[in-house]
UniProtKB/TrEMBL annotation:
Keywords: Hydrolase, Magnesium, Membrane, Nuclease, Transmembrane, Transmembrane helix
GO MF annotations in UniProt: hydrolase activity; nuclease activity
Residue ranges of domain TRAM in the record: 311-372
Record-linked Gene3D superfamilies: 5'-nuclease (3.40.50.1010)
Species of provenance: Desulfosporosinus hippei DSM 8344
Cofactor(s) in the UniProt record: Mg(2+)
Pfam families cross-referenced by the UniProt entry: PIN, TRAM
Protein name according to UniProt: Uncharacterized conserved protein YacL, contains PIN and TRAM domains
Length: 396
C-alpha cells in the first residue's frame, strides 16, 4: 500500500516536472523554432502525461535504490561517533549559511546562475562537514560559550560522576547508554561449547552478554537438524543460554539488530562488533582471525583454556561412545558433550559401543582441544606364566 502511494506521488511529481519544462520551452519560444504551429495548450497535457508515464515506470527502481541507499547510510552512520556527527552537522550548517549568502549574487546570472548557486552550496556544505568532523573538539568547545549548552555540559559531568560512584549492577538494571555499557557479543560456537556458563559463574566477566537474534536463529536451526549430533549440540546450546539467563551475576540481552545485506552469521557478528565497538566471545578459530583483521577485539575461550590447566588430565578414566572411524588404521573417534574430539587408539572395534578409556595426552590449541586415549582393557597387564624350558631350568 505504501509503495503504491509513493509510486503515485513520484508519477505526479514527474508529471509536474513535464508541465514546468513545457512552460520553459514556451517562454524560450523553442517550440516555434521547431515549426510547431498548433495550439500550445495541448503541449502542456502531452508533456505532463509523457513525464507521468516515465515516473510510473521508473518509480519501483527508484524506491528500491532509495531503500538501499538508506540502509547503506544507516550502516555507515552507526559506526561514526556521536561527537563526529555533532561536529560535522554544525560545520555543514555553517557552510550552507555561507553558501546562501554568496549564492544570491549568482542567481541574477542567466542560465548558469542557479547552477552555480547549487554547486557552491554543495561545495561549501561538504567543506563545512569535513572541517567540522576533523575539528569537532573546537566546534563543540565553541558551543560552551552559550550558557544553555554550558549548563547542560556541567549537568552531564555531575551525573557522570554520580554514575561512576554508584553501584554498577543498579546502573545496568536502570538501563545505560551504549558508551557506558561493556557488551560482550556471544557467537554460536561459544554457546554450544558450554564453558561460558562456568566462566559466568566465576564472576570474571563484567558488563552485559549480548546474544544477537541471528545467532539464536542459527541455534534453532541446529537444534532442528536431522543429524543427531548436530541436534544434540543445538539443544545443548539452548540449555546453556537458559542457564546463563537465570544467573544474577551478569545481565543477558537479546539484540534484535540484523544486517539484511549480509548472509553469513560470522560476517554479521563482525559487523555488529564494529557497530557496537564491543568484543566477540568465541572459540571459532576462523572467526577469530577474520575479526582481528577487521579491527574487532576477540575474547577466545580456547586461548583462555591455554592459560589454565586442561579439564582432562592424562591418566584419567572416561566413559565415551565411539562414533566413527579415525584417520589412522584401527582408530576410533568419540566426542564429549561440548564437541571435543577424543581419538581412541585401537577403538575401531568398539564402534557404536560405550567403552572406558584412559587419557594418554591432551592437545590444546587456539583452534580447540583434542584428547588422545586408549581403551582401558587393552592396557591391563596379563599374568605372565612360566614356559616349559623355564620350568626345567628352575628344577635343575
Amino acid at each position: 500500500m505504501i509503495r503504491n502511494l509513493i509510486r503515485g506521488i513520484i508519477t505526479l511529481l514527474l508529471g509536474a516536472v513535464g508541465f514546468y519544462l513545457n512552460y520553459i520551452l514556451i517562454s524560450l519560444d523553442f517550440l516555434n523554432t521547431l515549426g510547431w504551429n498548433g495550439s500550445l495548450v495541448w503541449t502542456y497535457a502531452i508533456m505532463s502525461v509523457l513525464f507521468g508515464i516515465i515516473g510510473f515506470l521508473v518509480a519501483p527502481v527508484s524506491i528500491r535504490s532509495f531503500i538501499a541507499l538508506m540502509r547503506w547510510m544507516d550502516s555507515r552512520l552507526t559506526r561514526v561517533p556521536t561527537n563526529d556527527l555533532m561536529g560535522g552537522a554544525v560545520g555543514g550548517i555553517i557552510g550552507l549559511i555561507i553558501a546562501s549568502l554568496f549564492g544570491n549574487s549568482f542567481v541574477s546570472i542567466k542560465f548558469f546562475g542557479p547552477l552555480l548557486a547549487v554547486l557552491l552550496s554543495l561545495f561549501l556544505g561538504y567543506l563545512g562537514l569535513t572541517i567540522g568532523m576533523k575539528r569537532k573538539e573546537d566546534v563543540l568547545g565553541f558551543l560552551n560559550f552559550f550558557p544553555k549548552f554550558r549548563d547542560r555540559g556541567e549537568k552531564a559531568e555531575k551525573s557522570g560522576d554520580k554514575a561512576d560512584k554508584g553501584d554498577k549492577n543498579k546502573e545496568g538494571k536502570a538501563g545505560l547508554s551504549r558508551e557506558s555499557v561493556s557488551y560482550k557479543i556471544l557467537d554460536t560456537s561459544v554457546i554450544i561449547d558450554g564453558r561460558i556458563a562456568d566462566i559466568v559463574k566465576t564472576g570474571f566477566l563484567e558488563g552485559v552478554l549480548l546474544i544477537p537474534s541471528f545467532v539464536l536463529e542459527e541455534l534453532r536451526h541446529i537444534a532442528d537438524s536431522s543429524d543427531l549430533l548436530k541436534r544434540n549440540r543445538g539443544r545443548r546450546g539452548l540449555d546453556i543460554l537458559n542457564q546463563i539467563s537465570k544467573e544474577t551475576v551478569i545481565k543477558v540481552h537479546i539484540h534484535e539488530q540484523d544486517f539484511d545485506d549480509i548472509n553469513e552469521v560470522d560476517s554479521k557478528l563482525v559487523r555488529l562488533g564494529q557497530v557496537l565497538n564491543s568484543p566477540l566471545l568465541t572459540n571459532d578459530y576462523n572467526l577469530n582471525k577474520v575479526a582481528e583483521l577487521q579491527g574487532v577485539k576477540v575474547l577466545n575461550i580456547n586461548e583462555l583454556a591455554n592459560a589454565l590447566k586442561p579439564i582432562v588430565l592424562p591418566g584419567e578414566e572416561m566413559l565415551v561412545q565411539v562414533m566413527k572411524e579415525g584417520k589412522e588404521p584401527g582408530q576410533g573417534v568419540a566426542y564429549l558433550d561440548d564437541g571435543t574430539m577424543i581419538v581412541v587408539d585401537m577403538g575401531r572395534r568398539y564402534m557404536g559401543q560405550n567403552v572406558v578409556v584412559l587419557v594418554t595426552s591432551v592437545l590444546q590449541t587456539a583452534a580447540g582441544r583434542m584428547i588422545f586415549a586408549k581403551p582401558k582393557n587393552s592396557l591391563e597387564k596379563k599374568p605372565m606364566g612360566l614356559r616349559p624350558t623355564d620350568e626345567v631350568n628352575a628344577i635343575g
